[in-house]
Design brief:
mainly alpha; two-stranded antiparallel sheet; 2 strands
Amino acid sequence: MSAPSLTPSKAGRSRHSTPRQEAPAAPGGVFAKNLRRNLTAHSFLIGAVLCFAVFSWYPMVREFVLAFQKTESGESVWVGLDNFRTVFNDPAFWQAWGNTLWYTALALVLGFVVPFALAITINEFQHGKSYLRLLVYLPVMLPPVAAVLLFQYLYDPGYGLLNELLGFLHLPEQQWLQDADIAMFSLVIASTWMNMGGATLIYLAALQGIPGELYEAAELDGAGLFRKIWHVTIPQTRLILSLMLLMQIIATMQVFVEPFLLTGGAGPEGSTTTVVYLIYQYAFNFNNYGAAAALGLLLLVLLAGFSAAYVKLSRAEDE
């Protein structure tokens, strides 16, 4: 029998040999590799930032500059606070703010409560929720001009459908858009119908995320429908409700399409003149871009202050 070989086997050498260490890559090579890998993502990101800067940041900066300038014969002259004095001394200024705040208050009563109540009602149905969601969202898919033309027909004092209905019920007919007392209310009805679909779907999604055990526990405690809404539904959707309240206030404070198309902007006795319509008048009817920018800046500051207060209160509640 031959003696065993003392030479280590290849398997032993490979098992106990020191692993080969690769040379560290150069920093420039790592950067180039990461750049090539993320080049597409960076390109999309840069494009989005540039679009946002051109169409959002630049107009805001330009408006701020124009608010302190006056443009005559194509030349801009720095005038300080003269544009703000012009705006404050305009009798339509305070009327426009009053109308805008009144419109916002009415829109919160209808445009904030009605979609939430409609979402609660749809959520109670066991079948047909998809068709009801589609039916509610249909007005949002209509172009705003088409929806406004529809309400022009409904509000017409001669052959309008609403006055025909009032006549059928033996009630006095109304001058919906020609009466200064109800013109703003008529605009709110039209705006609520046109825009409540999106809010209703958001509320409905929030309601479907509430655990059913909470309602069962409330029923065991003897809670009725309104108590369940007050003690279960509203607390569970508080975040969505507060966010939608902020968004609706910001949107209604900038209302323009409805009064411009339904009442010609100013309305009877200036009852539907809003802040944004007054900005439109300064810019395109009076060619006073400085005053328009000053009024727009005041609206921007007001809405920004309201948003900051909302964020601060929300953080305080969370803490």
